[in-house]
Automatic annotation (TrEMBL):
Reactions performed catalytically: GTP + H2O = GDP + phosphate + H(+)
Portion of the full-length sequence here: 121 to 727 of 727
Species name: Rhodotorula taiwanensis
Gene Ontology terms for molecular function: GTP binding; GTPase activity; mitochondrial ribosome binding
Residue intervals passing through the bilayer: none
Protein name: Tr-type G domain-containing protein
Length: 607
C-alpha cells in the first residue's frame, strides 16, 4: 500500500461510549476477524457477536474498560480495486490511562470522536478532543448507541452538541449503532474520505526512523516492539540501532497486528515483506532484557544513523502506594512480576521499601487510583500474585526553613508535629476538575465538592435543553470547573459523584499547580506500637473523623489475641481515637502476623 492508501486513526471518547465495540464491528466488516456463527442455543433475536476483541487483558474484559491502547491493521475495500490499509488504535477512555492515549495518538493523522447518544458530550469528550486538536488531527464526529435513543430527541440533541463543539454542520456528524453495526460502514467511508493519509515519501532511499510506542514480552522471542514508521522502511534481516541505548540488533521478524500478531516477513509477494513509512507494525530483534525497551525510542538502520524523533514526556505519577507480598517469602517472585508488568505499563514507577509490619516490598507510583487498582488486579490475574496495597498518597512537597525542598511519597516520611517546626510550608497537588451534568444536580455536586475542600471556578451551560422535559437527558446541561486537592478524589469521590447524580455526571481533570495546605501525619498504634504501614497524611480539618473511622475499622480487622489489644489513632502525642479488643478467654494459638495480614487484605484495610 502506498502512503496515499494508508489511514492511521484513533477512536476517542468518554469512557463507555462504545469505542471497543465500534472497533470490533470495523474489524468484522473488513473481514479482519470472522463474525462468529450464531449459537443455536441462543434466541434467534440474539445475534452472535465478537465482544471487545481488542480488550485482551482479563481485567479489561471483566471491568469493560480499556486499559492498554491496542492497535489493529485492516484492509478496507471500498469498491473493486479501491482498497485501503487502515491502522486503528483503540484508546483507553479513563483519565488514569491518559498516557496510553497520548502515546497512541503519536502515530495517527486523524480520529473518530464518539459520543454516547443518551449522554451527549461528557467531561472526557472535551479533554480528548483538545488533545486531538492540539496534535493537528482531523476529527470525524459520530454519535453512537442510536438504537437506544430511537426518535426520542436525545440522539439529535447529542448531534447538535457535537456539531457545535466541532464547529461543523450537523449533517457531517455520523449516526451509528456500534452494537448492531448500523451506520458503521459510514465510519469506514469517512475515515478514508476525510482523514488525510500519512505524509508521502519525499525521495528514494530515505533512511529509516521508527518510533517505538508500545512493547510487550514474549517468553520465547523476548521483547516485541510496536513501531510507527515515520521515515524509510524496515525489513527482516536489517540491523537496527536504538537512539536511546546505542545498542544494535538484527531484525528477526516483522509483522502487523491483525488484531493478533501476523508475520509479514515470509509473505508470498516480496514487495509486501516490509514495514513502510506510514505503517504501524511490530518487530522482534532478540531483545531479551525488558529494560532495553524504551517507549518513545527511535530506531534507525545501523549503517545510516539518524537523530531521534521528538517524542512525549512521561507523565509524573500522581498516586503512590506500598505493595507487599501477602506471602512473606514472596518478595523475589513479586519483584519479577512487577518487572514484567511495568514493561507493558511504563507509567508505573518502582522503588523498593520495607516496613516493620509488612516486611520487604515496593513503593509504586501510578497515574491515579483506578490505575493502581488495575495494576493490582493484573498482578493477581496474570502472575498469581496476592498483594497488600497500602493507603494511597499523593506526592506532597515540604519546604524547610533552611530553604531546602523535599517531595514525600511515603506517609512514614512526613514530619511529625515536632519536625513540622522546621518547616515553612507544606504543599499538596491540586487539580482542575471538569464535571458535566444536567443542571438539576448542580446543588448536590456543589456540596460534594465543597465537602472535598473544592472551590468553584466557573459554570457554563453546554446546551439550552428543555427545563420542562420529563427526561433528565434532555434537560439543560452544565460544565462546572472546580479546583480540588488531588488527594480528595483518589478514593471515593468518583463513585459518590455518580451516585448523587444518578449516573448522569461525568468527570475529568487535569493537573494544577501545588498549593499550601495544612496537612498532618496520623499514626496508628497497636498496643502502643506504631504501625508504619498504616500511617497516613490527612488534612487537619478531617483528622478527627479519619482517626475515629480508622480505629473502628481496625478493631474489626485485627484478630483477638490472648491479651488485650488497644488501637489508637494519633497526631504526635495527641490521641484522636481509641478502640479496645478484649482478649480470648481460652488459650488459642494463632499465627499472629499471617492472620493479621490476611484479614487486612480481606477487609481492604490498607486501600
Ligand atoms: P472503555 O474502553 O472503558 O473506554 O469503553 P468503550 O468506550 O470501549 O466502550 P465499550 O465498547 O466497552 O462499550 C461500553 C458498553 O456500551 C458495552 O456494554 C457495549 O455493549 C455498549 N454499547 C456499545 N455500543 C453500543 C450501541 O451502539 N448500542 C448499545 N445499545 N450499546 C452499545
Amino acid at each position: 500500500f502506498p502512503p496515499e492508501r494508508i489511514r492511521n486513526f484513533g477512536v476517542l471518547a468518554h469512557i463507555d461510549s462504545g469505542k471497543s465495540t465500534l472497533s470490533d464491528r470495523m474489524l468484522e466488516m473488513t473481514g479482519t476477524i470472522r463474525k462468529p456463527v450464531a449459537d443455536p442455543n441462543r434466541l434467534a433475536t440474539e445475534e452472535a457477536k465478537n465482544e471487545q476483541v481488542l480488550d485482551t487483558l482479563k481485567v479489561e474484559r471483566e471491568r469493560g474498560i480499556t486499559v492498554r491502547a491496542q492497535s489493529a491493521t485492516m484492509i478496507y475495500t471500498k469498491a473493486a480495486n479501491d482498497s485501503y490499509l487502515l491502522n486503528l488504535v483503540d484508546t483507553p477512555g479513563h483519565v488514569d490511562f491518559s498516557s496510553e492515549l497520548l502515546r497512541s495518538l503519536l502515530s495517527c493523522q486523524g480520529a473518530v470522536l464518539l459520543v454516547d447518544a443518551g449522554q451527549g458530550i461528557q467531561a472526557q469528550t472535551l479533554s480528548v478532543l483538545d488533545e486531538a486538536l492540539s496534535r493537528g488531527l482531523t476529527v470525524v464526529g459520530a454519535v453512537n448507541k442510536w438504537d437506544l435513543v430511537k426518535d426520542d430527541g436525545r440522539g439529535e440533541a447529542a448531534v447538535q452538541e457535537l456539531s457545535d463543539l466541532l464547529g461543523c454542520d450537523p449533517s457531517e456528524i455520523l449516526r451509528i449503532s456500534a452494537k448492531t453495526g448500523w451506520g458503521v460502514e459510514s465510519v469506514l467511508e469517512a475515515i478514508v474520505e476525510r482523514i488525510p493519509p500519512p505524509p508521502p515519501i519525499p525521495s528514494e532511499g530515505e533512511n529509516l526512523r521508527a518510533l517505538a510506542f508500545d512493547s510487550w514480552y514474549d517468553s520465547f522471542r523476548g521483547v516485541v516492539s510496536l513501531v510507527s514508521i515515520h521515515e524509510g522502511e524496515l525489513r527482516k534481516g536489517d540491523s537496527i540501532t536504538s537512539t536511546t541505548t546505542g545498542k544494535s540488533y538484527p531484525v528477526l521478524d516483522i509483522g502487523i497486528l491483525s488484531p493478533g500478531e501476523l508475520s509479514i516477513a515470509t509473505h508470498l509477494d516480496p514487495d509486501s515483506r516490509v514495514l513502510r513509512k506510514g505503517m504501524v507494525g511490530w518487530f522482534v530483534c532478540g531483545m531479551k532484557d525488558p529494560k532495553e525497551a524504551f517507549l518513545g525510542d527511535t530506531f534507525h538502520l545501523t549503517t545510516a544513523p539518524m537523530p531521534p524523533l521528538e517524542t512525549f514526556k512521561p507523565l509524573k505519577p500522581m498516586v503512590y502506594a506500598g505493595i507487599y507480598p501477602l506471602d512473606p517469602g514472596g518478595f523475589g517472585k513479586l519483584e519479577d512480576a512487577i518487572r514484567r508488568l511495568t514493561l507493558t505499563d511504563r507509567s508505573v514507577t518502582v522503588n523498593r521499601e520495607s516496613s516493620s509490619f509488612l516486611g520487604q516490598g515496593f513503593r509504586l507510583g501510578f497515574n491515579g487510583s483506578l490505575h493502581m487498582d488495575v495494576f493490582r488486579q493484573r498482578l493477581e490475574d496474570e502472575f498469581d500474585e496476592e498483594v497488600i496495597v497500602t493507603r494511597p498518597l499523593v506526592p506532597v512537597k515540604i519546604i524547610y526553613k533552611d530553604g531546602t525542598e523535599k517531595t514525600i511519597d511515603n506517609p512514614a516520611d512526613f514530619p511529625d508535629p515536632g519536625g513540622l517546626l522546621k518547616v515553612t510550608q507544606v504543599m499538596e497537588p491540586m487539580i482542575r476538575a471538569t464535571i458535566v451534568a444536567p443542571d438539576e444536580y448542580m446543588g448536590a455536586i456543589m456540596s460534594l465538592c465543597t465537602a472535598h475542600r473544592g472551590i468553584p471556578i466557573s459554570q457554563t451551560y453546554l446546551s439550552t435543553g428543555s427545563t420542562s422535559s420529563a427526561s433528565t437527558a434532555l434537560k439543560p446541561r452544565v460544565s462546572l470547573i472546580f479546583s480540588l486537592p488531588l488527594s480528595s478524589i483518589i478514593t471515593t469521590f468518583h463513585s459518590n459523584l455518580k451516585s448523587i447524580s444518578s449516573g448522569f455526571a461525568s468527570f475529568d481533570y487535569e493537573e494544577a499547580p501545588y498549593e499550601v495546605s495544612d496537612l498532618v501525619r496520623m499514626n496508628i498504634l497497636v498496643s502502643g506500637q506504631k504501625i508504619d504501614a498504616l500511617c497516613t497524611v490527612v488534612h487537619r480539618s478531617q483528622v478527627q473523623k479519619e482517626g475515629r473511622d480508622w480505629a473502628a475499622r481496625l478493631r474489626e480487622a485485627i484478630p483477638r489475641q490472648q491479651h488485650e489489644v488497644v488501637i489508637q489513632a494519633a497526631v504526635g502525642t495527641n490521641i484522636l481515637a481509641r478502640e479496645r479488643i478484649a482478649p480470648f478467654r481460652k488459650m488459642k494459638l494463632l499465627s499472629k502476623q499471617k492472620v493479621g495480614k490476611a484479614r487486612l487484605k480481606e477487609r481492604n484495610m490498607c486501600v
